Model the fold of this input.
Amino acid sequence: MRTIITRALLATGAACLVLAAGVEPMAATAVPMATAAGGLGLSPANASASGPTYFVLHVKPGQSSKATVLVTNSSSRAMSLTVRAVDGLTGQTSGTIFAGQHSRVRKAGAWVRPSVRSLTVPAHATRLVPFTVRVPAKSEPGDHVAGIAFQNRLVTSSKKKKFTIKEIVRNVIAVQIVVPGHAAFHPRLTTMRIGKVGATNIAAVFVGLGDRGRKLGAPTLAVTLVGPKQQRRRLVRQLDTLLPGDTIHYPFTWPVRIRPGTYHVVAVLRGGGEHVTLRRTLRVRNGASAAKQREAAFAVPHQDGTQPWQLVLLVGAGLGIAVTTSWLARRRMTTGRRVRPE
Done:
């Protein structure tokens, strides 16, 4: 499991551009540290230098557990922070992301209660923030993922030629709640289509996939494309974490041009000792370009977890500041957000 740092930028004026969208994912068994973004660092209070940089709490249904976050301000000015529990989610390119600061808490985030809703951390200082996890009595066994988001109330601005950039720093530390009992990862495939990634002309096979089980998993996805004149290509990609119960439409970017015509597509998802297969015959009316080197912008490259990914968004003033960790991208962070290549 990996934690995330979110940094959102609001550009006002003539420019309106998305620079990057990345979220730091969560591996199937361990989450990297919430590295300082803008001087804001988070870690478990009792962790050693080589110890865990996130929380894994084993809690039985109807019981509770307590832990403490160490909040560090390494910047030269005091930080006034809001503190809020958020849900863990599966990003579109797989990997764990976290819901936005104002998103309604619907899942495991509702089990997490920070002791404060706000705090001030002086420059070059630390503070301790205890929290409690209460697991409802009828909760299902398995992995449940939440996060505790710390967001700086201070909005900093810097002026460029034709626009102003406003920056908000948000850091999230992951809380993996393990409810004891029988649970397993069960891969599932739902849909397939061939299309283009966003507003680009980059070709992709969009595969609906997910985890119908109760444990985290990081499966492999193999896609075989047989096109006009029996042109055949098979690619295999290692995905990042899928959270229990989640389904995403994964954009499997394609390294060669997909031309108009009829394609026979086979997808195989393997994980947890199981595999599932989905076959479709798809008609492509408008072709799309090969992904080539640009594929990295849409696939999720593998990281060792030492650096979280940041979500950097430039949006028009009228759109407001959209801070999500889904992602953070929905939704890993491109300074510190995570992606895994094949």
Notes: The longest strand covers residues 163-179.
